[in-house]
Write a structure and sequence with these properties.
- The complex is a heterodimer of chains A (about 170) and B (about 270).
- Chain A is mainly α.
- Chain A is about 70% helix and about 0% strand.
- Chain A contains seven helices and no strands.
- The longest helix of chain A is centred in the last third of the chain and has 25 residues, at about 140-165.
- The radius of gyration of chain A is 15 Å and the shape is globular.
- Chain B contains five helices and twelve strands.
- In chain B, the strands form two sheets. Chain B has a six-stranded antiparallel β-barrel. Chain B has a six-stranded antiparallel β-barrel with strand order 6-7-8-11-10-9.
- Chain B starts with a helix and ends with a helix.
- Classes of the chains: A mainly alpha (about 170), B alpha+beta (about 270).
């Protein structure tokens, strides 16, 4: 238990730093902004209570916001995916539920499951984030294109990270 | 209370979610000038619309009072008209006892009305207490209505123009030829102007007004416009007049008191005695 908590705190800090230092500087032709810090939400243990998940999402988004000077936008998007995560998890659950002692990772539930699960969350996050950032529906389709392309980029990075960093 | 707690327990994650999202949006609004200005516009559009709508509805609610106020205002203004004075040069002084005054207007409301009989009468909510006596003219903002027949302390009956026994004097405004008005008893929006000689030029659309020859109606109260005219009885026209007053929707009227009526009648009686 203590191990899980300390590991998550460490992951939280690492992901915020990574996002702020490296991935925020990646911007390809104004369309592709990968946001990988939500790996934190994706990889939270299955047993995490909903309210803990929401609070963690809130503080995660807030930390990113503080560094990127986009007060509130990442918070809104991250709180949103923290809210929908339990529903997505339960709808993708295996027939006999998630085994205790396992984590939502490729290692335990396979690549197709992980891609389904992660890409939904990433897409939802990017959707909220980009539209909140635009705050109007005038450029609806160009924003949607940004959402889709950035989601693809982020999902790719997150899946790849499963094989290199979060292997187990 | 128990149910409330259960509700909170059951939906705690949704409630927390909403609270956190609201906080996030407050941050967005507070720290991002672009978003703040957008929000201001949206709020302005929404609330502006809302206040306009609300204002509309509340106006409807106060229409009754507003009408009453307007009615009173109208009465005052009518009493100020130069035509209400015997000598129009008189300055506008709202003094009802002024000897110079000829007409005095009293506001009233129609509480009973009919248009479908041959002899139609109107009942008003004003009577002797308010100065209404028989033989007073009744008009509305759109034109002639009738003549007071009887009055009790608080009510008065009015012989409507739509009454086959009512023949007010009328004239063509353009050339001042006069005749009298008669209702055919058929349509509530048409009367017939009689006794206009055939040599008089009548045009469709000519305005017909009261002549002022009787001691009842002031001169120039609108009756209607000429719709068509036909030759009748050889030397007179029968002119069909479109009534300007809509008797079906009659609500607010003005009763006109001719203050100098007695004097005029007294003098005219002398001729008959001679």
């Amino acid at each position: 238990m203590i191990k899980v908590i300390s590991r998550n705190i460490l992951r939280f800090l690492m992901l915020v730093l990574l996002q702020v230092m490296i991935f925020n500087n990646i911007e390809i032709s104004g369309y592709l902004n990968p946001y990988i810090y939500i790996i934190f939400i994706i990889l939270l243990p299955f047993e995490t209570p909903a309210w803990v998940c929401l609070l963690l999402g809130f503080f995660l988004g807030l930390s990113i916001d503080i560094f990127t000077e986009t007060m509130g936008m990442h918070t809104a998007a991250t709180v949103f995916i923290a809210y929908i995560r339990p529903y997505i998890l339960s709808s993708f659950a295996p027939r006999d539920g998630y085994e205790s002692g396992t984590f939502p990772r490729v290692y335990y539930y396979g690549l197709p499951w992980f891609i389904k699960y992660a890409s939904l969350l990433v897409f939802a996050h990017h959707l909220v984030l980009f539209y909140v950032e635009m705050f109007k529906f005038q450029d609806f389709f160009s924003t949607l294109l940004r959402v889709i392309l950035s989601s693809l980029f982020s999902i790719t990075l997150i899946v790849v990270s499963q094989y290199f960093i979060f292997r187990k | 209370m128990k149910n409330l707690l259960r509700f909170f327990y059951r939906y705690h994650s949704t409630i927390l979610f909403l609270v956190l999202e609201i906080i996030a949006f407050i941050f967005i609004a507070k720290y991002n000038s672009f978003h703040r200005s957008r929000l201001f516009n949206v709020r302005h559009a929404m609330l502006g619309d809302f206040t306009a709508k609300f204002d509309n509805y509340s106006q409807y609610l106060s229409l009754l009072e507003e009408n009453k106020a307007l009615r009173e205002e109208n009465v005052k203004l009518y009493n100020l008209l130069p035509g209400s004075y015997f000598n129009p040069i008189t300055k506008y002084i709202p003094d009802t006892n002024k000897t110079d005054r000829k007409f005095y207007f009293i506001g009233a409301r129609v509480i009973n009305n009919s248009t479908n009989k041959q002899y139609n009468f109107i009942t008003l909510n004003r009577g002797k207490h308010h100065g209404i006596e028989p033989e007073m003219a009744v008009i509305c903002d759109r034109g002639i209505v009738g003549v007071v027949k009887e009055s009790t302390n608080n009510f008065a009956t009015v012989v409507s123009v739509l009454n086959r026994e009512f023949f007010p004097n009328a004239m063509i405004k353009r050339n001042r030829y006069f005749g009298y008005i008669q209702w055919s008893g058929k349509r509530y929006d048409k009367v017939i102007l009689k006794e206009i000689p055939v040599h008089v030029e009548v045009l469709e659309g000519d305005t017909i007004v009261t002549s002022g020859h009787s001691s009842i109606f002031p001169e120039g109260i609108l009756i209607g416009t000429v719709e068509k005219y036909v030759l009748a009885e050889g030397i007179f026209y029968d002119i069909t007049v479109d009534l300007s007053t809509d008797f079906k929707s009659l609500t607010n009227v003005l009763v006109i008191k001719n203050i100098m009526k007695e004097e005029q009648l007294e003098l005219e009686e002398k001729i008959e005695h001679d």
